[in-house]
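The following record pairs a protein chain with its ligand, nicotinamide-adenine-dinucleotide.
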Amino acid sequence: MVRVWVTGGAGFIGSHLVRHLIHTKSDWEIHTIDALTYAGNLENLADVLDHKRHIFHKVDIADSNSVENLWTEAPPDIILHLAAESHVDRSILSPLDFVHTNVLGTVTLLEAARRHWRGRSDTLFYQVSTDEVYGSLAEGEFFSEASPYDPRSPYSASKAAADHFVRAYGHTYGLPYLISNCGNNYGPYQFPEKLIPLTITHLMERKPIPVYGSGQNVRDWIHAEDHVRAIDLLIQRGQRGRTYLIGAENPRPNLEVVRLLCRLYDELTGSSGSESLITFVKDRPGHDFRYAIKPSPSLKALGWSPQVSFEEGLRQTIAWYLSHPDWLDRVRSGAYQDYYRFQYGERLG
Ligand code: NAD
Ligand code: TDX
């Protein structure tokens, strides 16, 4: 039995990963650590929460005593680290929360791993990171493994710091690690503060769809299930001590994405005129212009390629949100309403 600890397993990508591992790895015992912040939700794991090979722990990863106690009881063989504060707009409002979880939390896990793995080389600390650590590209440029780190938001600075700590632990203490940097994910269970689920929920409620600035900023989109399949392959066959870039070669200006969502929404629901909801609003401070990824050739050589086309993935995602109104009601609790009013109240008038 391989004991695998997933941090942030009740979040968006984490819940896709936990579900995938439970269904595909019959000899793995999966432990989820999650603090259940506004972005973490046990409902995201409903179908696997009580599975006999899954154990859930509500713990803050920056709480070293709790992490220590858990890992003394059930030492990890593999740590898949996804827990994070993940929303750029929130990082602009309160950077210290991002330092707490993304930096202090990551180093707390690394320290505990170092203690528990002394003398072992058959373990793995897998850091799930983002392309945002590489900064912003000009038209026609792409990130590659050789791109220098140049984080420009409090979120990406905190993720970059965490990546550097992971590499430092590999170099200094010989900790077996692997890092992957992925582009913008979308799919079911994504908290409705990010562009795609926010747009879908505004379409459902016929509310103005806020597009920052000119809408020409570019993001490179991948379905969370394709990301999770790449993580799975890299756990099995990725070279330890290496960094991999994961992307579906799907860079698009935000306005194109929002227009596509409007068209697909109208087709799926029989509505019309959704594009008229698009509203240009004040830009995000320090808004990175373009992210676009050349996925690692070695990842492709291992046999990975994205399986979900963008249009099909968006159709399926819209359908999921349409069929989960109760999930939406519950995640958009009082605290979300406060954030939403602060972030969009003035912008949308
Ligand atoms: P998310 O915000 O949906 O989920 C984050 C999870 O971490 C939540 O369940 C939350 O409760 C948990 N968490 C937060 N602080 C915690 C703490 N102190 N202790 C324990 N748990 C805590 O995020 P996501 O979009 O699923 O992203 C998962 C990971 O993937 C993050 O590390 C993110 O940086 C990375 N990533 C995300 C994207 C994307 O487009 N969403 C792209 C590339 C990389
Ligand atoms: O209301 C909006 N209007 C808008 O135009 C929002 C929320 C976003 N945007 C723009 C900003 C970005 O250019 O859409 C683009 C995507 O924005 P987000 O969904 O907030 O994602 P982004 O800032 O690109 O970061 C995401 O991708 C990389 C995730 O939140 C990160 O966790 C991940 O690392």
